[in-house]
Specification:
It holds the Pfam family Mo-co_dimer. Residues 49-219 form the Oxidoreductase molybdopterin-binding domain. GO terms for molecular function: heme binding; molybdenum ion binding; molybdopterin cofactor binding; sulfite oxidase activity. Residues 262-346 form the Moybdenum cofactor oxidoreductase dimerisation domain. This protein is mainly beta. It has two domains: 53-83 and 124-241, Alpha-Beta Complex (Sulfite Oxidase, Chain A, domain 2), CATH 3.90.420.10; 248-354, Immunoglobulin-like. Helix content is 8%, strand content 34%. The chain is built from five helices and 23 strands. It has a five-stranded mixed sheet with strand order 4-3-12-7-8. The N and C termini lie far apart (45 Å).
C-alpha cells in the first residue's frame, strides 16, 4: 500500500486539472477545467486501492478459466489486438462520488476518500467484447457468474452475472480515447462494465473466472455495498451490493465558485447508469425550477452535457440541479445514511459567490 501522501500513480496530476486527496492514490477530475464531451486522459479521475502496477505487456497474459467453462484459455496482449475490436463511449463513476456530502448532511464522515463530484469521467474505450473471450473458453449451461481479477497488489476482483458479462457493451479495453491504455487506467487491459459502479470495471485484469456457482469477493460483500440502518443483508454481504449507478448531475464550476455578475451560461453534466438522461432542471436559490438545454451527444451509459442561462446578481447563491433518466429515475432531495458513503446522488446546493 502507498505510504500516506506518497505518490503511487504514474501520470502527472497538476492541481489545475486534478483534485489531490493527499493519499497518493486518488485524484479527482476538476470539472471546471473540462473541455469537450470526452474526458481527456490527463484529467480522467484516478481511483486506486494500491500503487499503480507497471506491467510488461510482452509477458502479460489473460487467463479465462473456472468451473463454468469447458476449457481454460490464455490470451497474450498481441492476440487480443488481433481479435475483432469494438469501441464504446462510457462513463465510469466511483461509488464514493459525492461522499463528502454525507458529512455535510449528517454531521459525520462516512469512511473512505471524501470525493465531492470529481470521481466521474467519460472516455471512448476500445477493445474486445468480453463475450468473445468467454466463448473461446466454452461456457457451460451451468455458467452463472463471471469475476475479473486484477494484477494490482490487492488482486482486486468483483463478480457480475454471466448475462452482464455477455452484453454487447461489456468489453476488455486496450485503448482509451484513441491511445493505448495508460498505466493508471488499467494497462495492459481493463474491463469496462457499462452503467455499473466503477469498481466493476476492474483494471490491470489478469484472470477472468467463470463459475457454475454464485461468486463473492470482499468487494461485493464487505465493501461497495449499501450497509447500515435500513439496508438488509443480502446473502453473505453485509448490505446490498452496488451495481447500477443512479442519476447524478454536476456543475462545471469550482466548489465554491466565484464568478462575475451579469448574464452567464451555467454548464454541467448529468449521468445515469440505467439509461440516457432525458431531463435536467436547475434552480437558483428559491426561484422556480427551469429546464436546462441538453446538448448532443447524449449516449446511454455515458453522460449528457447541459447548459442554462442565468442572470447572476452580486451576493451568495446556491445552484441546484436535478437529472431524470429515460426510465423515470430522478435525483432525490435526500438519501439515507450508509456506512461506506456510497451513491450520494441527492440534489445539493452548489455555492456560488457573485461579485
Amino acid at each position: 500500500m502507498s505510504r500516506a501522501g506518497a505518490r503511487a500513480v504514474v501520470k502527472p496530476t497538476p492541481p489545475e486539472l486534478m483534485e489531490d486527496f493527499g493519499d497518493g492514490l486518488n485524484y479527482g477530475t476538476r470539472l471546471s477545467n473540462h473541455p469537450g464531451y470526452l474526458t481527456p486522459i490527463d484529467r480522467f479521475f484516478v481511483r486506486n486501492h494500491g500503487a499503480t502496477p507497471v506491467i510488461d505487456a510482452r509477458t502479460w497474459q489473460l487467463r479465462v478459466d473456472g468451473s463454468g467453462v469447458r476449457r481454460p484459455v490464455v490470451f497474450s496482449y498481441e492476440q487480443l489486438w488481433e481479435m475483432p475490436l469494438t469501441s464504446v463511449v462510457r462513463a465510469i463513476q466511483c461509488a464514493g462520488n459525492g461522499r463528502v456530502f454525507f458529512a455535510e448532511r449528517f454531521g459525520r464522515e462516512a469512511e473512505g476518500t471524501q470525493w465531492r463530484t470529481g470521481a466521474l469521467s467519460t472516455a471512448e474505450w476500445t477493445g474486445v467484447r468480453l463475450r468473445e473471450l468467454l466463448e473461446r473458453a466454452g461456457p457451460t449451461v451451468y455458467a452463472r457468474d463471471v469475476m475479473p481479477e486484477g494484477l494490482d497488489e490487492l488482486r482486486f476482483d468483483r463478480p457480475m452475472p454471466l448475462a452482464k458479462a455477455m452484453a454487447d457493451d461489456t468489453i476488455v479495453a486496450l485503448a482509451m480515447n484513441g491511445e493505448v491504455l495508460p498505466c493508471d487506467h488499467g494497462f495492459p487491459a481493463r474491463v469496462v462494465v457499462s452503467g455499473w459502479v466503477g469498481t466493476a470495471s476492474v483494471k490491470w485484469v489478469g484472470r477472468i473466472q467463470v463459475a457454475a456457482e454464485e461468486l463473492h469477493s470482499y468487494w461485493n460483500t464487505r465493501d461497495y455495498v449499501l450497509a447500515g440502518p435500513g439496508y438488509p443483508r443480502v446473502g453473505p454481504a453485509e448490505g446490498v451490493p452496488i451495481t447500477v449507478v443512479p442519476p447524478m448531475s454536476v456543475i462545471e464550476l469550482d466548489w465554491p465558485a466565484v464568478i462575475p455578475s451579469g448574464a452567464r451560461t451555467i454548464r454541467g453534466r448529468a449521468f445515469s447508469g440505467a439509461d440516457r438522461v432525458v431531463r435536467v432542471a436547475v434552480q437558483a436559490d428559491d426561484a422556480a425550477w427551469r429546464q436546462a438545454r441538453l446538448l448532443e451527444p447524449n449516449i446511454a451509459g455515458a453522460w449528457v452535457r447541459w447548459e442554462i442561462d442565468w442572470l447572476a446578481t452580486p451576493g451568495e447563491h446556491g445552484l441546484r440541479v436535478r437529472a431524470t433518466d429515460a426510465q423515470g429515475n430522478v435525483q432525490p432531495d435526500t438519501v439515507p445514511w450508509n456506512d461506506h458513503g456510497c451513491l450520494y446522488n441527492a440534489v445539493v446546493a452548489h455555492p456560488v459567490r457573485v461579485w
